[in-house]
Design brief:
- With 260 residues, the chain is of the alpha/beta class.
- It contains 10 helices and 11 strands.
- 32% of the residues lie in helices and 22% in strands.
- α7 links the parallel β9 and β10.
- The protein is globular.
Length: 260
Amino acid sequence: MDTKLTTAHCPLPASAALQILPVLDLLNGIVVRGVGGRRDEYRPVKSVLTDSAKPLDVARAFRDRLELTTLYVADLDGILHQQPNETVFRQLATDGFELWIDGGLRTLDDASRLLKAGAAKVIVGLETLTDLRLLKLLIDKFSAERIVFSLDLQAGQPMLGGVRWSDATPLGIARAVIDIGILQMIVLDLSSVGELRGPSTLELCIAIRRLAPCCRLITGGGVRNAADLEPLQAVQIDGVLLATALHNGAIGPRDLNSEI
């Protein structure tokens, strides 16, 4: 399907170019390097951009060195322990960053707190979703513009929370949340994160794009260098989550300032 012919009347405007979203993985209040979803192995990040693992320092390095100001924050303290780093969020928002926060939200009140703490968008992750009705309630209360669903995968398999899906395949889950009203979706395979094996969700993203031309799609995991961004742009994926390739310098200012 040629999505260029079918997106003119989409509720959310299409992205003009592939959006780069630097990732801050937070654990114990500092930035860690995510590898393969093996969270017990996550260690403080080491980066060519900064010697610090403090969230504000890393965020400022993304801005000062790469001119990137919209951040995806995976708050593992919130996701794993329901102890979100709200003070960190406020610091980042006050410093001018636009935040997409996955804080392991499980209720409307969780979403409200994240938004008050500075989130521009809140992420509803598959692995922590316990009731499908919550998605509809979130959209009704906060609008589809501020709610992003994360299709969390591990080696291609959905990381199921407490929801009982009629079709628990990745595409079936995507279809179900789109039917509810989701207009923005992250497709993230944690087994690829930090492994530098190349993007692993491209075919799934293409299938979701065919299913829902108007859905904003962001992928993540496995990107090695700027060449890996080209096929994402070619199939009109809207954004990509990056961490390792930024921290090791494989993708730098020259790559980000060129046409992908």
